[in-house]
Amino acid sequence: MVAHELSQQALIPALSDEHLELQRMVRNFAQKEIAPIATEHDESGEFPLETIKKMGAMGLMGIEVPEEYGGAGMDTLAYALTMIEVAKADASHSTIVSVNNSLYCFALNKFGTEAQKQKYLTPVASGEKIGAYSLTEPMSGSDAGTMESRAVLNAAGTHYVINGRKSWVTSGPVADYVLLFTMTDPDRKHKGVSAFLIEADKPGFIRGKKEPKLGIRASATSEIVYENYEVPVENMMGERGDGFKIAMTVLDAGRIGIASQAQGIAEAAYEASVQYARERQAFGGPIGQFQMIQQKIADMKTRIEASRLLIYSACAAKERSKTTGERYTVEASMAKLFASETAMFVTDEAIQIHGGMGYSKEMPIERYYRDARITRIYEGTSEIQRMVIARNELGLR
Ligand code: CAA
User: Residue 250 and residue 323: Cα distance in Å, rounded?
Assistant: First the structure.
């Protein structure tokens, strides 16, 4: 679909009473229970298990998963609104919510068998267990089809034996289950990738070093090493060789989540900046009276609202795809690209407006800036999003 067709279809969904109620509930929870602990967890890097468990009890760890599998049975917009509110309080929490919801649960719900859903979706969607998604390897990041890890079918045909090293696994240090992408047929390149559901408490699953990160420091990220890990054949998701397409389909959903995370960070930085511009006095009045501050406020606000429209439009496209089966790759990539670059712009300007206070750890502004940075990298860099958008528009592969 080309650009003008997209814009003709860009239906922006209105928020229903149910959405508004959810938004209020998540906002209250996030501001009361998450915002006050954000700085402490940022400093310590400690995983916020207690608040994550509470969000699980509220239905926020499986928002789009049907109730019969432990989820809240809501739509993509509900997920985006939740992500925005959680990220506004603390981006680390929203990273954990995002991977659990739109990478792990979304994949299980869409591609899992009934038995896989019963065993591996219900406990994660209800927040009892934590799920992770594992595609990246030390030598395979943006070029996701080139992984070196291997899964080899045993002689009896009952198990695949997995060996290799995966990196940058969000929630890797704490995950109970991992959706793993690895090579079963290396000669077939991306068509040789298969997806498996992995239990973390089995022999051969080794949690590697935890990454010391610039931002989202309380969302634990680690390597996972597989040493002769045996996974039963019934834990393959989809058919052998379907893995790359599953990984890409799932990332389309995930990118709406990261766009929403970026939106939440940008909104938090923007609201703090407006308040500061009203209160901070210089040259005989509040700094907001100066045109150079006003220009920043106007540009921040405009980009934030444009991001919101792209995110809502991507949510609508994803909802439509549930009936039409059409991909919403371009809408998701545009939302992620624009929202993550907006978050960088807004958090940078927020520091400028706050001056020295923006650079100090006494205020959360510097954390917003550090947290925003990852949104231009994970789940596909800005460069990859531009490539995806342009290739689709030009009809290239
Ligand atoms: N949905 C469904 N199928 C898709 C797809 C999508 N969005 N994108 C591609 N495919 C299919 C293609 O149709 C093609 O299928 P056929 O061979 O049957 O025609 C196949 O996948 C290969 O497609 P390409 O030739 O386009 O593949 P490519 O090797 O050129 O790579 C890419 C495409 C877009 C660059 C992809 O590799 C990509 O998105 N890279 C970025 C990976 C990424 O986002 N990594 C982040 C991992 S998660 C993370 O960040 C950590 C975390 O825990 C949060």
Answer: 17
